Amino acid sequence: MRAIAVDAMGSDTAPLPEVEGAIQAAQAGHAEVLLVGPQDLLHRELTKRGAKDLRIEVVHASEAVTMEDEAAKAFRRKRDSSIRVAARLVRDGKADGLISAGNTGAVMTTAKILLGTLEGVDRPALAQVFPSSQNGKASVLLDVGANVDCKPLHMQQFAVMGEIYYRVIFGADKPRVGLLSNGSESHKGNEVTREALGRLNELSLNFIGNVEGRDLFNGRVDVIVADGFIGNVALKISEGIVDTFSVLLKEALSSTLSSKLGYLLSRRAFNRLKKRLDYSEYGGAPLLGVKGVCIICHGGSNANAIKNAIRVAAEFSEGRVNEKIERELALASLSKN
Amino acid sequence: MRAIAVDAMGSDTAPLPEVEGAIQAAQAGHAEVLLVGPQDLLHRELTKRGAKDLRIEVVHASEAVTMEDEAAKAFRRKRDSSIRVAARLVRDGKADGLISAGNTGAVMTTAKILLGTLEGVDRPALAQVFPSSQNGKASVLLDVGANVDCKPLHMQQFAVMGEIYYRVIFGADKPRVGLLSNGSESHKGNEVTREALGRLNELSLNFIGNVEGRDLFNGRVDVIVADGFIGNVALKISEGIVDTFSVLLKEALSSTLSSKLGYLLSRRAFNRLKKRLDYSEYGGAPLLGVKGVCIICHGGSNANAIKNAIRVAAEFSEGRVNEKIERELALASLSKN
User: Fold this and answer.
1) Domain A127-281 maps to which CATH number in 3.30.200.20, 1.10.490.10, 3.40.718.10, 3.40.50.280?
2) Cβ of B214 and A255 within 8 Å?
3) pLDDT 10s digits, B55-70
4) Which residues of A touch B250 (CB under 8 A)?
5) Looking at domain B3-121+289-319, which of 3.20.20.70, 3.40.718.10, 2.60.120.1440, 3.20.19.10 is its CATH number?
6) Residues 6+ apart with CB under 8 A from B316
7) Quick check: A230 and B230 CB within 8 A?
8) What is the rounded average pLDDT of the residues A145-160?
9) Mean pLDDT lowest among A49-58, A86-95, B36-45, B57-66
10) Quick check: A181 and B145 in contact, CB under 8 A?
11) Which of A49, A140, A333, B169 gives a 20 to 30 Å CA spacing to B236?
12) Would you tell me which residues 147-176 of chain A have a C-beta closer than 8 angstroms to some C-beta of chain B?
C-alpha cells in the first residue's frame, strides 16, 4: 500500500477536512496516511473521531504557510512548515506522494526545490480536471498556473505529461490531445501557440490540433495544452461562472412560491447536477514533472476532496506516471531550440 | 433619428432574425433601418410581415459571406457582399452604423479597411458584455478576438476605449477598469501583462489593477482589458460552460417524475434565469476604434438580439463614443515605445 503525506494545515478550514479526509481514505484502504501538522492538535482531532486503529501516522510540523505568504519567502523562512515537512517525507522516501490544499505557489515552489524535476522536464505543470457534459467524461487542462511565459518546447513537454496522466488516471487508451487556441483552424493562434502547434504535431500522440475554450467541457478532447497564464485565466473563469450560475439559479428558484415548491421537488436532481460539476470528485490538481507525487487541492476542499486526492496520489504512484514520463520524453527526444 | 445598416444575410438562420429584429427596432423607434441583402427576398419577407409603413429601407446586395469564407479573401472577392455594402453605407455617411451577425473575421476586416481606424487608435478591439451575478450589472471584456499578440500600448488604448463605451452605454460615472491576469497582486502576470499594468496605472481612469477570471462575473470590475488571444479564449470558455450547464441541468431535471414536475413548477424562474444569462439582451459586441459604428452579433442571434444591437448601435452614435475616444486618447498622449 502506498504512503501519502497530507499537509494537514492547508485548507481554509484546516485541519478538519484533512483529518476527516485522511480517515475516509484510510478506511477505504486507498493509502497509508502521514498526517503532517501540530502533533497535539492532530492527535486530539483523530482521537475525537475514534481513528486510533487506522493506518494514519501523525508527523509533527510546527509552522504553517498562510495564503498571504509569498511562495519563495515562505520556503526560506518557514523551514518547519507542514508543506515543507510533507515534501521532505517524499524526498526521503518515507512517503510516495504528498497532497496539500494550501497556498498553491508555496506548494509548487517547495515541491520543485525539494523534490526536483524529472529527467527531460524543463518546467513542471499543474493539471486541472474539468467535468464534461458527456456523462462520466472529463478533460484535463495543463498548465493552469505553474508557469507564465511558456515556450513551445515547454508546451510540448506538457502534452507528453498530460497524455500519460490521463491514460493512467482515467484508463483511456489513446486520449485525444488538443492545443488551446482562439479557433480550431491551424492558422489560428498567437505566436507561441502557432509554433507550439507545429511541435505538438511532431509527437506520436493522438493530437487533434487546435481546440477552443468551449471544448474544455464538450467531450471533444481529453487533454488540453496551454501556456500557464492562459490556463490559469481559463480555470478561474470557469470557477467564476459556475459560482455565478449557482447564485443566479438559487435566486431564480426562490423568487416565487411555485418555483420554491418546484425546487423542493427537483432537489435531488439538483444535487446530482452539483455533484457532476464538483471538481472535488476528481481529487485536486497534480503538479506533473516533479519527482514523487504532488497534488494540490482547492483551498475550499472538503473531506471528500481530500480523500479523493489521497486516492489519486496513490494511483499516480502505482501507475508509475513518472517513469512513463521520463521514458516517453527520452524517446521523443524533443529539440531544445 | 439614427440610421443603422443591418447585414440581413449574416445569422445562422438569415434573413429571418434580421428582418424581424429590424421590424421590432423600427416599431420601437430605436433607429431607421437600412436592411442590406437580396432585395426581392427582403421585400417579400417584409411584406409578409406587413412592415410597409415602418422606417425600413432595403438596400440591395447580391452576395453573402459564409462562415467558411476566409476573411481577407471574402473581402477581395465578394465585392457586393451584404457586409461590404453595409460598411459602404456607413463610410459614405448614409448610415451611422452597421450591425452583422455574420462571419466575425470578415466583418472586422471589412470594417477596418472600409471605415478606417480612429485617430490615435493602432488596433480596433472587439468588446463583449458579460452578465454578472449582481442584478442588472454587467461587465465588458476587450479585446475578445480582434487581435492576437497585443502590445502593452494596444492594451492601454483598449482601456481608454472600453471605459468610454461602458460610460456611454451603461450610464456609469466612473467605471472600474481592471487588467485580466493570473492573480490580483501586482507582481502577477506574464511579461506583456506586467508591462501593461504599469501603462494602465498611468491613465487617469478608475483603474483597480489586476483582476482574475472570476471577476468577469462577480461585479467587482466593470471593464476588463486583455490581449485578444486571451480574451477570445475567455469568451469561448464562458460560452462553453453555460451550454454545458444548460445540458446538465436539463438532464438532471428530466431524470425523475418528481423532478419533471418540479421543473414545470419552476419553469418561469428558469426562463428568467436564462434571460439574465442571455448575451442577446446586450446587443452584440462592438468593434471599438473604427470610424462609424460596427456591432457584431452572435451567429445564433434571434430577432431580440438583432433589435437590441440596432438600439445599442444608435446609442453608440448618439453618445458620441468615437469623438470621446479620439479626444481622450489625444489628452492621454500615450508613449509609443
Assistant:
1) 3.40.718.10
2) no
3) 999 999 999 999 888 8
4) none
5) 3.40.718.10
6) B97, B165, B168, B169, B286, B293, B295
7) yes
8) 93
9) A49-58
10) no
11) B169
12) 148-149
A1-121+289-321 and A127-281 in the same fold: yes
**Any idea which architecture B122-283 has in CATH?**
3-Layer(aba) Sandwich (3.40)
| Distance between B251 CA and the closest CA of chain A, angstroms | 9
Of residues B216, B237, B269, nearest to A255 (C-beta):
B269
**Strands, E, within chain A: which ranges?**
3-7, 32-37, 56-60, 97-100, 125-131, 138-142, 176-180, 206-211, 223-225, 285-288, 293-296
Q: For residue B318, is pLDDT > 90?
A: yes
Q: Compute the mean pLDDT over every residue in chain B, rounded to the nearest whole number.
A: 91
- Give the pLDDT score at A243: 75
B62 touches chain A (CB under 8 A): no
Q: Inter-chain contact A189–B229, Cβ cutoff 8 Å?
A: yes
Taking the C-alpha atoms of residue A3 and residue A90, their distance in angstroms, rounded to an integer, is 9
Residues A62-89: tens digit of each pLDDT = 999 998 888 889 999 999 999 999 999 9
* Nearest residue on chain A to B220, alpha-carbon basis: A240
What residues of chain A lie within 8 A of the CB of B266, using their CB? 252-253, 258-259, 261-263, 266
The residue whose grid cell reads 518546467 is: A123
Q: What backbone torsions phi and psi does residue A184 show, to the nearest 5 degrees?
A: -85, -15
In this structure, which topology does domain A1-121+289-321 adopt according to CATH? Isopropylmalate Dehydrogenase (3.40.718)
Confirm or reject contact between A242 and chain B (CB < 8 A). yes
Q: Among B337, B291, B330, B317, which Cα is nearest to B120's?
A: B330
